[in-house]
Amino acid sequence: MKYGSLVFETNEFLIIKKYQEMNYTIEDYAHKNVLDVLTQNMTSALCLNKVDIPYDIITMYTTIKVSSAFGIRQTFQVVPPNEVNLKENKISVISSLGASVIGRAQGDRISYGLPGDTVSLVIEKVKQPKTANKTTTKGDMTEEVNIH
């Protein structure tokens, strides 16, 4: 992990904990494992004020692009569970993929999939929402960072 641990905005950290407690729906064994790892990682997470969150951290409403060495490319937005819309590539923060990326940074690698059938994904691009604070944007323009 780029910052040594997951990084969360303090209020968002509490909201995600609440989602985990309220809606502990398990899709499958791999999803349970991802949520367990997220819970464990959150115990040592760095919680910051909104204005101090680095520009490349994945928060709720961040749009990200992940890719693999095998040609997998996926762009999606991490959203609260009640705003999921797969046609618009909006995935829940507590879904397997959402829980794998939340709090991580551009350039981080994640393992995604079922045990024995996982793929290594790189967080290639992070685009903050237009409502992000001034440290995550340049003026009124959304900050978008690319890895080469």
TrEMBL record:
GO BP annotation list: regulation of DNA-templated transcription elongation
A single GO molecular function term of this UniProt record: DNA binding
Gene3D superfamilies in UniProt: Transcription elongation factor, GreA/GreB, C-terminal domain
InterPro entries in UniProt: GreA/GreB_C_sf, Tscrpt_elong_fac_GreA/B_C
Pfam assignment, any one: GreA_GreB
Annotated TM spans: none
Domain Transcription elongation factor GreA/GreB C-terminal span(s) in chain numbering: 56-127
Protein name as it appears in the record: Transcription elongation factor GreA/GreB C-terminal domain-containing protein
Source organism: marine sediment metagenome
